[in-house]
Write a structure and sequence with these properties.
Layout lengths: L16 E2 L5 E2 L9 E12 L2 E3 L4 H4 L5 E3 L3 E12 L3 E5 L6 H8 L7 E6 L6 E4 L10 H11 L4 H15 L14 H14 L4 E5 L7 H16 L3 E5 L3 H7 L2 E6 L2 E6 L1 H12 L11
Parallel strand pairs: 7-11, 7-12, 9-10, 10-11
Antiparallel strand pairs: 1-2, 3-6, 3-8, 4-5, 12-13
Helix pairs in contact: 3-4, 3-5, 4-5, 5-6
Length: 285
């Protein structure tokens, strides 16, 4: 098991890698040494409440509540993500992956620890459905999603047509989102996030969106963001695609980092840990 400090950095990778579809990709520049996000000693424990049964004899009709044992979501997590880097985060359900992304973007405050963001704007978190209202039209949801990502209305007005064009939704943009297929909804959410040109993009189970053609376009857009020294941190259970796209992978388990480093090595160790054999077709993870 690698020491927690391993999460704080790794040498820049300048060698060839592969895109999300397994095609060779030459980076135009190495990953910079300049940090984009530095998280230190993050701890979060959720304290759920459990309701006691009514006791007419002792307490009349009162309902008492007692505090249960805290659920540790993040346990002394430290991490440095560099500019121009794509970092993948893997782990079983409940490992703390989504909680970590929410702390990194500032949506959730840790009980202890700090997050320092080296960017002109806060990280943009794309978790499909975040900031959206399915009963409203796609048009209205562009504004809701943009505002949730930190954009001002004037800026959304400027890029509105670009978002619609990128999403390829056409006249469906005027329909309620609850009439969309899951692929259409995913395309709208990704289009709002990527057209805002974030310096730091956080993806929560949203790496593969829409049909194959749109996945290729979204992959090209994310690679373009990286080439402009943007930063991507992505959570996914699709190990094959993460391994193909990311420069490093961090393995989170029960709120603590188990290992951080080479995508091939970390995914193999994780599969061995959970007892899952390597699939014959990697991108079908």
């Amino acid at each position: 098991m690698t020491d927690q400090s391993a999460a704080s950095g790794a040498p820049a990778r300048e060698e060839s890698t592969f895109d999300a579809f397994g095609q060779p990709l030459e980076r135009k520049r190495p990953i910079e040494e300049t940090p984009a996000i530095v998280a230190e000693g993050l701890c979060i424990a959720f304290r759920p409440f459990m309701e006691k049964r009514r006791s007419i004899r002792r307490h009349g009709l009162r309902v008492l509540k007692r505090e249960s044992e805290p659920v540790v979501a993040l346990d002394d997590v430290s991490l440095t993500v560099r500019r121009g880097e794509a970092l993948g985060i893997i782990g079983s359900n409940g490992a703390g992956k989504s909680t970590l992304l929410r702390v990194l973007c500032g949506a959730l405050s840790p009980d202890s620890g700090t997050v320092t963001v080296y960017a002109n704007s806060p990280p943009t978190l794309l978790a499909l459905g975040l900031g959206f209202n399915r009963s409203l039209s796609g048009r209205r949801n562009i504004y809701l999603g943009g505002l949730a990502s930190g954009l001002r209305k004037a800026r959304i007005d400027e890029i509105f047509d670009d978002i619609v064009a990128y999403s390829e939704l056409g006249t469906a943009i005027e329909r309620p989102v609850d009439t969309y297929s899951s692929g259409m909804f995913a395309r709208l959410a990704f289009s709002v996030a990527i057209q805002s040109r974030p310096e730091i993009l956080l993806l929560d189970e949203a790496m593969t969106v829409g049909d194959e053609a749109f996945r290729k376009k979204s992959g090209d857009s994310m690679r373009g963001l990286l080439e402009e020294a943007g930063t991507i941190v992505m959570v996914s259970h699709g190990l094959g695609r993460l391994k193909a796209f990311c420069d490093r992978i961090a393995w989170l388990d029960k709120g603590r980092f188990m290992d951080v480093g080479n995508p091939e090595e970390i995914t193999d160790r994780y599969r061995a840990h959970i007892g899952v054999a390597k699939p014959e077709v990697e991108d079908e993870d």
